[in-house]
Amino acid sequence: MSLPITTERLTLRSFRPGDEDDVFAYRSVPSVIRYIPGEPKTRDQVADLVSERATAGRIDPTSPNLTLAVELDGRVVGDVLILLEGPDGADGRQAEIGWVFAPDVAGQGYATEAARAITEAAFREVGVHRVWAQLEPENTASSRVCERLGMRLEAVFVKGSWFKERWTDLAVYALLADEWPPAAPPSTA
Length: 189
Ligand SMILES: CC(C)(COP(=O)(O)OP(=O)(O)OC[C@H]1O[C@@H](n2cnc3c(N)ncnc32)[C@H](O)[C@@H]1OP(=O)(O)O)[C@@H](O)C(=O)NCCC(=O)NCCS
What we know:
Aminopeptidase, eight-stranded mixed beta sheet, 5 helices, 8 strands, 28% helix, binds coenzyme A
């Protein structure tokens, strides 16, 4: 995947030293972490996260996990994840995508813009057959990102996931390569 990826308003790039304060500002917030694995991060944990991610610069079946910093006007306001997998393990034919953004930039279409960019790169550059996302249906902000991308809701597993000490519903959204881009591009709004 060629990096950085630039969109109308954003730059998607590898993490680098110096991103810690920006990342701590959203990764330490309990409401941001509610629907994603793990606990709110401490400063030290964020430093480790940034340094781990700074060394990951490519995505292919031997390096199937890539998290990119999403930069807006020089500040990291979120991150997007792409995780390659396939029927024979990590053969790279499918990509799971995910997103986390700072609450103070919510409601402006940035997550959708970044998610659209990694979906485009997954299909066009990595050449995957299917892009999918999993989420808790009550996380309606995240469902709406999927819907704006034109993803199809394929399943809801009722109380099918043990997550943060409780049984939760799990929704799966997906898109196939020959469905991308959607015939009528969904609006970002
Ligand atoms: C999931 C998450 C990224 C969604 O954030 P978001 O701000 O709702 O999504 P976007 O940045 O795409 O913004 C879309 C909203 O901006 C609005 N908007 C305003 N101006 C806009 C513009 N110029 N362009 C596009 N959209 C615009 C849209 O109408 C939409 O609002 P709506 O959902 O109320 O209809 C965010 O809630 C988050 O980080 N949550 C915590 C982490 C998390 O749960 N991740 C997912 C785990 S599965």
